[in-house]
## 1
Amino acid sequence: MSTTRTRVAIVGGGPAGLMLSHLLHLSGIESVVLDHREVAEIETTHRAGILERDAVRLLVDSGASERVLTEGDRHGGIHLRFGGVNHHVDFERHVGASVWLYPQTEVFVDLHRTRTRDGGDLRYGISGTQVHDVTGSPRVTYVDAEGVTHEVRAEIVVGADGSRSICRALVDPRKQYFREYPFAWFGFLCEAPKSADELVYTRSERGFALISQRTEDVQRMYFQCDAGEDPTAWSEDRIWSEMHARTAGHDDFVLRTGPVIEKSVLPFRSFVQTPMRHGNLVLAGDAAHTVPPTGAKGLNLALADVRVLAEVLERALVKDDAAALDGYTERALSRVWKAQHFSYWMTTMLHRTAEGSDFDELRQLGELSWLVGSEAGSAYLAEGYTGWPSR
Ligand code: DHB
């Protein structure tokens, strides 16, 4: 068995784990990143595509990505489509901020390239990862592709290993909070031109639909479906006929269609586990909390967690401030609960409820018409969508 000593062992080499490793490197703190997936697998898994203002700043200011500015698309608002008409909400006007359309896979590519360039110790394609002795001298053991067992000894272990986290189970949960939803999202990629300049979030009697983008020729779309829906039961014709029905209206909006090149069903739930730390083990991102996809907060929250965590770890490991980790859960959760509310709120405003009652339908339309017709309503959406400024 080979042994490596490092200061921070990061379980999970997605964007959160890599960004943490990058920020620690900038503070002169060594880390080792471990992930059971291969790099190629992460690079080809489709995830959400919207970055909040502060997430973009973090990528650019830390030197991790110039590409987000040159290849990403700045979006100064969104369209809310209901009652058969598009209503534009202008983020710039209401809160002076924008978001960027830049898919999570690209964030991963940039961070992976940056860490590789800087000589980061990144170990992908491993198996059997186990974390030991988190209240004493933590160790992570795993087996490499050749079947050799390795051990990484660290002062701190960070669980940035996503919604199926193995680290989460090692934190003695004081409290877990859940919200289940009686639906899911059907997501697909298609070869089609853009249907609009910005994203179109649609509420219809048949349920929610979202028209997002990827490039000039490839688009990403989603529609509300039943939980447990089978993607293979949806032919291309059936997908487009549902999208047409949900986006139909009486303005000049035209849904642009084309071959569907990938499809999947996305789970839908809200989850928070507290605390986010146990001894020398700390959780970040989806390992500690999950939001429903509406509003694309998942990656943004993970990046916000690791920004706080990098600062706290620097105080703990460079400035010998042993109490620095104590405030991490509270600081991270203050943003997490705002995002939980925001994702839940957007979801309940735009999705058809299980019963599909007239009351709910008219209540949603009342809320939407307030939102687009009021400075306060539009500013509320704009602030949450572009992200709350970090302290
Ligand atoms: C995307 C996903 C979302 O959940 C969302 O709210 C907006 C955009 C996307 O994949 O592009």
## 2
Amino acid sequence: MSRVPDDNLPTGTTAGAPQVLLNHHLKQLKLPTVLREYEKVARECARDGVDHPRYLLRLIELELIDRERPTVERRIRAARFPAVKSFDTFDFTAIPSLNKMLALDLARCEYILRRENIIALGNSGTGKTHVALALGLAACQKGFTVVFTTAAALANQLLEARDEKRLLKMQRELAAVKLLIIDELGYVPLSPTGAELLFETFSQRYERGSTIVTSNLPFEDWTQVLGSERLTGALLDRLTHHVSILTMIGDSYRLKQSASRRRTAGGAEQNQATPDEN
Ligand code: ADP
Ligand code: MG
């Protein structure tokens, strides 16, 4: 056997030295995830017959994910989502009018690089807000800044900002956001000035950033919310120049859920009342 005896190693080194040195270097290079995971991932890769470049890739990807996590979480907090929802919990079979391929493709966020917009149209409870939230979350994960608001809240905030002489600052901030999500255009009619300021927001973002709008109203009824035919035309012109439209017409998911809960509860009562029939 030609085993190298330990006393042939350079002075000051022992058999465990590579590990000690590696740990030291990884700390110095600030790669805590690689340090924590390299032995475990090495065992997994040996077991699965994964080669060295792929082993290294796995480790570096883990380091990147850990490093990105706080930034992604910060972006999610900054987006002010009313709830964090994703496509993982979205049941596409419940809403056949929605083009699933298109929705999942949009989740890759390439439209944001192209500064294109998305409009989700459909009646109440069909999952428009859920889809907008899922697209917003995907954008945060891909590294884009996102702000989520409703049309009514945004119009009010813009009016407030104007009264407090900080409208320009707010408009500049809104124009800089990579993805602005404006939920629920249509439930509340806007004041003429509110509509005008909302239009300005769209105008300032035109071909500079992406906007998602959800509405329960078809385009021809948007005048009811914005008040003026001229303003609606100009807004739609900008919004729909580069746009993907998600059609979400169907039964309300909320109503369907509660109806099926009632059926289950009713069925259970019936079963108890007529045990002989089972
Ligand atoms: P909308 O904004 O169109 O009124 P929401 O997105 O608020 O509808 O949906 C109402 C509720 O039902 C939410 O809790 C949402 O998460 C849920 N929901 C709607 N559609 C679906 C679906 N297809 N799969 C899973 N949950 C859904
Ligand atoms: Mg909604």
